[in-house]
Amino acid sequence: DIVMTQSPDSLAVSLGERATINCKSSQSVLYSSNNKNYLAWYQQKPGQPPKLLISWASTRESGVPDRFSGSGSGTDFTLTISSLQAEDAAVYYCQQCYSTPQTFGQGTKVEIK
Amino acid sequence: QVQLQESGPGLVKPSETLSLTCAVSDYSISSGYYWGWIRQPPGKGLEWIGSIYHSGNTYSNPSLKSRVTISVDMSKNQFSLKLSSVTAADTAVYYCARHLAVGSFYSPMECWGQGTLVTVSS
Q1: Residue to test with chain A: of B64, B106, B117, most A Cβ within 10 A
Q2: What is the DSSP string of chain B?
Q3: What is the three-class DSSP state of A86?
Q4: Which of residues 11-70 of B touch A (CB under 8 A)?
Q5: Alpha-carbon distance B5 to A79, whole Å?
Q6: Most CB atoms within 10 A, among A10, A28, B40, B119?
Q7: How many CB atoms lie within 10 A of CB A23?
Q8: Cβ-Cβ contacts under 8 Å for B84 (sequence gap 6 or more)
Q9: Using an 8 Å Cβ cutoff, are A96 and A27 in contact?
Q10: What is the largest CA-CA distance in chain A?
Q11: Comparing C-alpha atoms, which of B34, B23, B120, B16 is closest to residue A100?
């Protein structure tokens, strides 16, 4: 299984400041034949299902604010929230869909400082 | 916009079989996506259980594979999960979801149901 490790486990950021979450996979999730990274980011608020924010490491889903961005390739990925808003307080998960079983990181809790 | 709704018993006894159904609305389940089950123990992270295509092609998590059965009923536009020999460790919120890419299991989950809590207890 591919192990997904996120860091940090939690962070507190002031409104308007940048939040950065890292995700490392135990093996590459880059598929060389199409040059796509099979890495997604989700946001989950209490009592709600996860919401897909970013697919293929850097493709923002429709309706997701442009303050959310994803980067990275191979085994190292980053989710950046450029200017944190109150509604961004949530737990964020990375997920690899490169191989089965699909696996998730342990989650990173983002709080407002 | 596709809608998914999980249903099933909220309480299952140890050693029995957990059975859930995901009803899909506003989209035909036979229209070319993979459909999946994911669970989340209270206060913990996400675990992918398995996914199915309308043809019946299925992928399951090896950690659960011997206990998991996923099936699809196109006449009712729904798919189902059965998890046998449950223990307290199977207590979780169970979500159904649709994969993002047409025809590809190897894609993230784009649309999710609201989830249903299943507690395993005598």
Answers
A1: B106
A2: --EEEEES-SEE-TTS-EEEEEEEESS-TTSS--EEEEEE-TTS--EEEEEE-TT--EEE-TTTGGGEEEEEETTTTEEEEEE-S--GGG-EEEEEEEESSTT-SSS-EEEE---EEEEE--
A3: helix
A4: 45-48, 59, 61-63
A5: 29
A6: B40
A7: 28
A8: B17, B18, B67, B69
A9: no
A10: 43
A11: B34
pLDDT greater than 80 at residue B29: yes
Neighbours of A112 (CB within 10 A): 15
- Residues, chain A: 113
> Is some CB atom of chain B closer than 8 A to the CB atom of A93?
yes
- The residue-averaged pLDDT of A86-95 equals 98
* Predicted local confidence at residue B31, as pLDDT: 86
Average pLDDT over residues A5-19: 98
pLDDT digits (tens, 9 = 90+) for B67-78: 999 999 999 999
The two tokens of residue A70 are: 């994803």
